[in-house]
Specification:
With 237 residues, the chain is an alpha/beta fold. It has helices at residues 16-29, 75-86, 106-112, 214-225; strands at residues 2-10, 32-37, 54-60, 90-94, 114-118, 134-140, 154-158, 162-165, 170-176, 183-192, 195-200. The chain has one domain: Rossmann fold, CATH 3.40.50.880.
Amino acid sequence: MKKAALFVGGWEGHKPQEFCDWAVELLEGEDFEVTSYDTLAPLAEPEHLADVDLIVPIWSSARSSHQEEFGNMNAAEERGMLQLIANGCGIAGWHGHMGDAFRDHSSYHFLIGGQFVAHPPGWPDNLDPTADYVDYDVTITKPHDPIVEGISSFRLKSEQYYMLVDPSNDVLGRTPLVDRGHSYPCRVEATMGQGPSLLLLTWPRDRRPSDSSGDRDHASRHALGSRRSARLTRRRS
């Protein structure tokens, strides 16, 4: 049985526990043995997580260096995560809980291949998130890739996520930035060492994870361990 480790915490505004409950149900339905942690401390001892196939960070802490209660990652925990991924463990997540975390840890962002910057057209973000809502299209650019196979392009009304992304990422989907007229990655896959990384850059803020359906749910299932989960979990020789 494959094993997944979920690290859950940080800013409550992104509802980490709700997403944890959703991810646990999803992964258990795909025959994962799931362990969730409300602390990052286990990462500092990677030898105890050596049999984990997939790490899912559900930890939103973009401003952790300014607000201690968000729970920042320390150097030992970062090194442990990097070691696990380099040894072949997969990592998967989404903007709010993976790309919007540990902003002062550059090696972490090198690992995941991206970092959240803004919600255009609001800059800085509007106090009312709905003021940044726009209609935008998500175009699947590699429809035969196992991660997005069977997912059609779709349309959302929510915040767009402007991210800094690694140019070596394998881009699986794109969206045009409404206020800039440029196409932009919205679903990317990266690799570090033997371990693959998947970062979903689109998720409607006003949807609970249990409300997700259709293409978004299909994409998430591939990200977190479908029958093709070998692309996201440990690459075994």
